Structure formats: C-alpha cells, structure tokens
C-alpha cells in the first residue's frame, strides 16, 4: 500500500485549501486578483524576527494560523447575514486563508523558536540543505547499500 507521509499529506491538503479559497473568492463575487494583491501583507509578521527568533516565531505563527482568518470570516458572514455589506472583511479573510495555504503547500510551516528556517513541516532554506548534507554523510552517501543489500 502506498504511504503518504504526514508532511506530504498536510502540503496536499494546503493546496486543496488554496484552490478552495480561489473558488470561494470568484463565487462570492470578489475580484480574483485581490488574492494576489493582498498576498504579501501577511508576511509583515516576519518583522517580529527583528526582536529575536522566539518573538518572531510567535508573530509569524499568529499570522499564519487559520484561527484569526477563520474568526474574521465568521464576522464577515455574520455581518452579511444582518445585511451589512462590509465586503472587505470577507475578501481579507479569504486572502489570508489563501496565503497560509500557499505557504504550507510550499513547505513553509509554522515556525519553532529555533529560528525562521525551522518549521513544523521540517527545515527550510539553509537548515534543510545542512540537514540533507548531514543525512547523506551519515548514511554513507547517496546510493549506498546496507547490510541487507537494500538501497537506502
């Protein structure tokens, strides 16, 4: 039976959420380009790293958790239900979810206090390259065989 690792499953799941955000955006009548126009706004949370890795991870994770955009979406739907057409809340919530989903699909997960390159989906950037170098050296190099004559 094929195996799908939890990290791969989360990345596929995130890609599906991103696609759903696009469908909801278009179906709700919001301009599709609003997702792109707002995309980098949520990465302003990385400014927390100027105060150190622990505070940076806190700020980044706060902005890259589905909790806040979901709450904003609830407010937007409730306002729409009462007849208030405050449409910017809805597009902001969807764009926020879209941003998080794209980040996760690309492997940029929630950060640990170790630093920006350490995420719940595994290391990224220099930390990933350093880890793969250590893993390759520890295993005897790529394509080496173990005592049971299986490729590692």
From TrEMBL:
State the InterPro entries in the record: DUF4260 (IPR025356)
* Transmembrane feature ranges: 62-82, 88-106
Outline the segment boundaries, as ranges, of region: Disordered: 127-152
Print the keywords alphabetically: Membrane, Transmembrane, Transmembrane helix
Domain of life, source organism = Bacteria
Keyword Membrane set for record: yes
Output this protein's name. Uncharacterized protein
Q: Which organism is it from?
A: Micromonospora phaseoli
